[in-house]
Specification:
Two copies of one chain form a homodimer.
Chain A (H helix, E strand, L loop, with lengths): L1 E6 L11 H19 L3 E4 L14 H9 L6 E8 L7 H14 L4 E6 L4 H7 L6 H17 L6 E2 L4 E2 L16 E5 L4 H7 L3 E4 L5 H15 L15 E9 L3 H23 L11 H8 L27 E3 L1 H13 L4 E5 L7 H14 L2 H4 L2 H22 L14 H10 L1 H4 L4 H22 L4 H7 L2 H13 L11 E9 L2 E10 L4 E5 L5 E8 H9 L4 H6 L3 E5 L7 H4 L7
Parallel strand pairs in A: 1-2, 1-11, 2-3, 3-4, 4-7, 7-8, 8-9, 9-10, 9-11, 12-15
Antiparallel strand pairs in A: 5-6, 12-13, 13-14, 15-16
Helix pairs in contact in A: 1-11, 2-3, 3-5, 6-7, 7-10, 16-19, 17-19
């Protein structure tokens, strides 16, 4: 079991001058204490415009400051909002890597989609798009960490030409990945992506067991196709906390914060009207807390075991024995980390510091014995499954040498693509992109590790016809750089000509037909199996070229455009 | 005279594992020394993808880390790239404010447009757009600092609905503003915007005087219309530096760094081809430095006065006496700050630290005496001009209460607007927007501080006809929320009806005509002078409503949409 602090930087109204300064400076002091005591992580959200609920809109800055006040505590983004309209994927890769450098490799990279109307409306992110944007951006960002140079991107969500995104993170291949799970079902999603689950839905320890079991079952199954280049099998639950030897005092100090946390969360994630700069969430809380199930008077000290959710949100507000018991129950359920929100609502800095010190003295020592051994055993147990999962992820790409930065072409491609084409048929585009992605991953699995003969058996001329027709359908005129003409593909078997295909590229669409071209602008001569490996992302055309397994005739400069012209992610 | 360090985080090839970590950790140590010694600022660039030349892509992170290693040194962004495709304006306001909070008010906010092909092509920013994007974004970002809530934005460059952008900076109204001047002419531009000039073009002290004089002449003139809500009258020059009591040793330690700095700058800002991840800038430097004017052998120790530019870039590489003499000459020219690049090319950490210590002992004390008094005198001298300049800036807006976050409407407005509409007629849009802006600022000056009678004299029915026709032309159907119908404006004089105008809103365009409406959906009754004040941004419709000076009849909900419907920046 690992322990962490969780920060939203809450600041209930009314506001006075200097309060935000105090809030930030106090939080830095708290993190310093947590590091000294032996907390393992500090997490900080990224939220925009959520007045009172979260004044933490630039966590990269706070965590970087915290890195120089601490020695070993890990610095977690809980989370970075991935939609490209909020944070450009390159800016995300840059800030994560830089934080890893100033902290000497202590970053955990939590991710999320953004969920509140304030944020989605504020940045113009379509709710129906955000899951697809997350999936797209995490793929791109993790490639920016490992690809040198990043081979470029072209999706309905963002476009970027090849660039070496620098600096690179200290941790290789990249800091551990997490995803925020505001609904419990997202825990399954986290497992399918091979990343840690940061669970914000308050779940009783006894229910958590089932979610954790399913999480680890998926991690170990074929369903797990890692979103990054490393798997991070971990489940964290987030709870409000306040500690005191006297239970009534703990409640008195902590329950308003815990309740405001829940109330304000519901305010921003529900349908409550919000007038920016005007709505007073704290006043609404005081007026309506009881009606919303956050009744202060219902919470009484009775020295019973803590229940998280029942009888209004109480979380880990109680005595060291009560909280240790709660943690033990989560531990039995297989939860890997409990994260505590102490800075919530009107909770006071000195009470937070006192709670932390008490936690260090009275709780932490009960959970550290044998921890390293248990974690090592877990890692060993999961190692084969993780290795198998990583083999299912499409590998890092290698851009062939010879790409040249070309500002004019790159800018006009960027402006023609991405947003401008999106609003027209967003849903169709997205379904297509998702379909392409699934198809590509399935394809990769069919090809990867097979011999030429095996691949050729599976993809005879009939299958080739389907693949070329698909290529032609995926043609994107905006990526053609103005090219119109014929592309010829001569596929060989055992070095001898076997089949030939021609793709005619026109102004708006492309058409595939069997046979040689009349007047090919570019001819590719390649083994049928190698060609399928290229299409599947299992072989790198640049290496094939250098090995003489791919030959080009005609306009060499067209070659690097082909992938992008036919819906591929990057211009090799 | 103030002194600063300047960081690009340069890392010439070949690269070894752990070098970026060392680079960042060393830089933090150097900044700590600079703070102890009495340097006034540390500046850090924001550059993307400029391998070897600058591994500083997330300065908000490095500066935040530096904030906790230092006590009084100011933390300068030199600069933040303002085009919205690189950094969303809200994300900029958030990170600047957060850095101001963790550093207890020590941020200087330098800004720029981005200039290299690697960056413009990488993020898809049109070179012809970037100046307009800078002007647009700095206006929006400074409003985010002071408006509560930010009243929203709608320009060809980005759109955002009203939101309270939090947190707010510690420094009021906001941290001092600067702009990067890569060409000397930009110094005039800085002055016209009332902000500090960070000059990167290496200029001899004797030439600097002319630029500084013109800068301060413009600051004190009508030409100065501040980009922010405070004026920052300062000129900084940037120079490479290395210090040693023995001149030959200083040259030996510092000249390769100074020269690589100049060479790599020319590489990325010129037309040299660059293959991302492949081009070896350091090798090209070694092969071509002499041919490009960076001949190591030409630089000899001869104990003469330093010239910055003549006989290849040497900057402030020399003995304490030489460098102090150079600084004195800049001081005589009226330059306010000299910023030194020590971490350049292959320069070594220990030599940098030694130079800093020597600077603190042998140079700094010569420039501190009487400095506060001189600065106070300068501030007093400029105060009336600054006050006059600030009166020319369009003031902060007040969003009337009653705006409601509406995710669906906001998202579809964002996706319909901004990028999707831009590629069609970018230049025309931009010229129009710039024209509107100039017109609006001129208009504001004509109205601000005048009596009703003065305004009415100037804007009779003829001028009103022009203004209403302009409003109708500026109509943006995407902001109408589906409204079609008549808007009636009854303008009064001394409380009595004087003139009436009707704007007919159709599917695609609006038309203005004199006289009352047949069937007005909304009627505004307001003094002619007050109406002109609203149009000029000199009066707030919400306050006029509350004071009874503006009356509405009909569909009240239409009123907050009017400004945006007719091309205004925000939906009051």
């Amino acid at each position: 079991m690992r322990f962490s602090l969780f920060y939203e930087h809450q600041l209930p109204r009314p506001w006075a001058d200097g309060q935000e300064l105090r809030l930030y400076q106090d939080a830095l002091e708290q993190v310093e204490i947590a590091d000294r005591i032996g907390f393992d992580y500090v997490w900080e959200v990224e939220h925009h415009f959520l007045e009172e609920y979260s004044h933490s809109s630039a966590p990269e800055v706070f965590l970087a400051a915290a890195s120089q006040r601490t020695k070993r505590i890990r610095l977690g983004h809980g989370i970075v909002q991935l939609p490209p309209a909020i944070n450009h994927p390159a800016r995300i890769a840059e800030r994560i890597a830089t934080l890893d450098l100033v902290s000497n490799g202590r970053v955990d990279f939590g991710t999320g989609e953004a969920s509140s109307s304030a944020e989605l409306g504020g940045f113009g992110v379509r709710r129906t798009d955000k899951r697809a944007q997350w999936q797209d951006a995490i793929d791109a960002v993790t490639r920016m960490f490992v690809e040198e140079p990043f081979a470029g991107w072209s999706s309905p969500h963002f476009r970027m030409p090849p660039r070496n995104v620098i600096p690179k993170p200290v941790q290789k291949p990249h800091p551990p990945l997490w995803v925020a799970c505001s609904r419990r079902e997202t825990i399954h999603f986290a497992a399918r992506n091979g990343i840690g689950a940061l669970s914000f839905s308050f779940v009783e320890p006894e229910d958590a067991g089932r979610w954790v079991d399913e999480y680890y079952r998926i991690i170990a199954s074929d369903e797990c196709v890692p979103a990054g280049f490393a798997v991070n099998p971990n489940v964290t639950v987030v709870l409000p906390m306040m500690l005191h030897e006297d239970e009534a005092t703990a409640i008195d100090r902590g329950i308003d914060g815990a309740h405001f946390f829940g109330f304000a969360l519901a305010h921003y994630y529900g349908t409550t009207p919000h007038d920016p700069g005007r709505t007073d969430v704290w006043r609404e809380f005081e007026e309506r807390r009881a009606a919303r199930g956050f009744d202060r008077d219902q919470i009484i000290a009775n020295a019973e075991a803590l229940n998280v959710n029942v009888g209004s949100l109480r979380g880990a507000v109680g005595t060291p024995d009560q909280v240790a018991d709660l943690i033990r129950r989560y531990e039995s359920a297989g939860v890997d980390q409990v994260s505590f929100v102490l800075q919530a609502g009107p909770n006071r800095h000195e009470h937070i510091c006192e709670s932390l010190e008490l936690f260090g003295k009275a709780i932490l020592p009960r959970f550290t014995e044998g921890r390293e051994e248990r974690e090592a055993a877990k890692a060993e147990r999961l190692a084969p499954a993780i290795e198998a999962a990583l083999a299912r992820r499409r590998p890092a790409r290698t851009l062939p040498p010879g790409y040249r930065i070309d500002e004019d072409a790159e800018v006009s491609r960027a402006l023609r693509g991405s947003r401008s084409s999106r609003p027209r048929r967003p849903l169709r585009d997205e379904v297509r992109a998702a379909g392409r992605k699934r198809a590509a991953q399935g394809f990769y699995r069919l090809v990867h590790g097979r011999s030429d003969a095996q691949i050729e058996r599976r993809f005879g001329p009939g299958a080739q016809r389907v693949l070329f027709a698909g290529m032609a359908r995926a043609y994107d005129p905006s990526a053609s750089g103005g090219f119109r003409g014929e592309l010829e593909f001569r596929l060989t078997r055992d070095g001898r000509p076997a089949t030939a295909w021609t793709v005619e590229v026109g102004d708006r669409r492309a058409r595939a037909k069997p046979g040689r071209a009349d007047d090919a602008a570019l001819t590719l001569i390649v083994g049928a199996a190698d060609f399928l490996r290229i299409l599947a992302g299992d072989a790198n055309p640049a290496s094939l070229l250098m090995d003489g397994r791919l030959k080009l005739r005609g306009d060499f400069e067209l070659a690097p455009r082909l992938s992008e012209m036919f819906g591929g992610p990057s211009p090799y």
